[in-house]
Write a structure and sequence with these properties.
Number of helices of chain B: 0
Structural class of chain B: mainly beta
Oligomer: heterodimer
Order of helices and strands of chain B: EEEEEEEEEEE
Strand content of chain B: over 45%
Shape of chain B: globular
Largest sheet of chain B: 7 strands, mixed
Structural class of chain A: mainly beta
Number of strands of chain B: 11
Shape of chain A: globular
Distance between the termini of chain A: 36 Å
Number of strands of chain A: 11
Largest sheet of chain A: 7 strands, mixed
Order of helices and strands of chain A: EEEEEEEEEEE
Helix content of chain B: under 10%
Radius of gyration of chain B: 14 Å
């Protein structure tokens, strides 16, 4: 089973400032086809998860271009270029390379 | 509108079974997968498994093997997740999600994106 580790656990942010979240996997998520099998989700309070980024860096439909995903292999980063109040919630990474799929433990983003 | 609508909350006694439904609308149901995820109160997301809505193939997380069954009814575009021998630590919010292949790779897990999520079904196990 691939273990996903996120950091930090909690991230206080200032509106208008950038923010970044790290996700590391215990095995490489890079497949022979060149894709990294890593997705990012945001779960706002009382809501289901919302897909932000898939295959490491592809932004999902309707997602603000303030969100970007980068990284390859075992180290990945989700960046928010300018944090807004609506970005508050818990962010999760999910590896889809192999079963069982596994989530990171989550990073809680809150406004300072 | 593409959406997944789940059944209402359930309260069960330990040892009982629960069956959660997930009805799809706005897309071609038998072309993807449905994944199931649960979230215990105040905790993170836990993957449970998926079922292909195309051929009914399933993949369950080992910890749920023998207790969970995922099925689909293509005539009503509905997926089901049944969990048996319920325990108190099964108390959680259960989500379904639509899975598809964005990379169309050969080999490994065939579903690399889970883009549409149901609203969640709260299952409470208590005597």
């Amino acid at each position: 089973e691939i273990v996903m580790t996120q950091s930090p656990l909690s991230l206080p942010v200032t509106p208008g400032e950038p923010a970044s979240i790290s996700c590391r996997s215990s095995q490489s998520l890079l497949f022979t086809n060149g894709y990294n099998y890593l997705d990012w989700y945001l779960q706002r309070a009382g809501q289901p998860p919302q897909l932000l980024i898939y295959l490491g860096s592809r932004r999902a439909s309707g997602v603000s271009d303030r969100f970007s995903g980068s990284g390859s292999g075992t180290d990945f980063t989700l960046k928010i270029s300018r944090v807004e109040a609506e970005d508050v919630g818990v962010y999760y990474c999910l590896q889809t390379l192999q079963t069982p799929l596994t989530f990171g433990g989550g990073t809680r983003v809150e406004i300072k | 509108q593409v959406q997944l609508v789940q059944s209402g909350g359930e309260v069960k006694e330990p040892g009982a079974s629960v069956k959660v439904s997930c009805k799809a609308a706005g897309y071609t149901f038998p072309k993807n997968a449905i994944g199931w995820v649960r979230q215990a109160p105040g905790q993170g997301l836990e993957w449970m498994g998926w079922i292909s809505t195309y051929n009914g193939n399933t993949n369950y997380v080992q910890k749920f093997q023998g207790r969970v069954t995922m099925t689909t009814d293509t005539s009503t575009s509905t997926a089901y997740m049944e969990l048996r021998s319920l325990r108190s630590d099964d108390t959680a919010l259960y989500y379904c999600s639509r899975g598809y292949s964005a990379s169309r790779r050969n080999g490994g897990n065939p579903w690399d994106v889970f883009d549409i999520w149901g609203q969640g079904t709260m299952v409470t196990v208590s005597s």
